[in-house]
Specification:
By secondary structure, the protein is of the alpha+beta class. It has one domain: Gcn5-related N-acetyltransferase (GNAT) (Aminopeptidase). Strands 1-2-3-4-5-7-6 form a 7-stranded mixed beta sheet, with helices on both faces. A hairpin with a 2-residue loop joins strand 2 and strand 3. The radius of gyration is 15 Å and the shape is globular. It starts with a strand and ends with a strand.
């Protein structure tokens, strides 16, 4: 397996495949989290717009899409990691860790001192994984309309 991690650019044209990767990766959350994942509202066109507005990376093995992430600088010194998705059949191969390394490099190149992400309160396995990668829980928050906490924020200082 030879993994190629590349930034998506204007030549990328496999938006339907990228959407399928994200939906497959987030499928295990269906029925576990409330409110449902925002991934369910994505379309190929909205992914294209997201990639135009943010910094998107894709991990490939040949022509096979294995993982992706979207990054967004946030003032004054943070890089937000969103839609970090690893195809279930590719999990456990270090792709999440490799993408995190790319995010750290992007943050440092932009003189940003921390990474930030959000994960649902119910997904304790994600909390543990991100914790092992050096992220610390910094807040518990609620989606609009929810009285209970629905997600946690985690940060990693670089």
């Amino acid at each position: 397996m030879t993994i190629d991690i590349r930034r998506l650019d204007a030549t990328f044209d496999r938006w339907d495949d990228l959407l399928a990767l994200i939906l497959e990766s987030f499928d295990s959350m269906n029925g576990r989290i409330d409110p449902p994942s925002s991934a369910l509202a994505l379309t190929a066109e909205s992914l294209r717009a997201k990639a135009d507005a943010e910094i998107a990376f894709l991990a490939m093995d040949g022509n096979d899409m294995l993982a992706c992430m979207f990054l967004r600088p946030e003032p004054p010194h943070t890089l937000y990691i969103g839609k970090l998705a690893v195809r279930p059949s590719a999990q456990g191969r270090g792709l999440g860790w490799a993408l995190l390394g790319v995010a750290e490099n992007e943050a440092q190149a932009r003189n940003l001192s921390q990474l930030r992400l959000e994960t649902r309160i119910e997904l304790v396995e994600n909390h543990a994984t991100f914790g092992a990668w050096g992220f610390l829980k910094t807040a518990e928050n609620s989606h609009p309309g929810f009285a209970r906490k629905t997600f946690i924020e985690m940060r990693k200082h670089l």
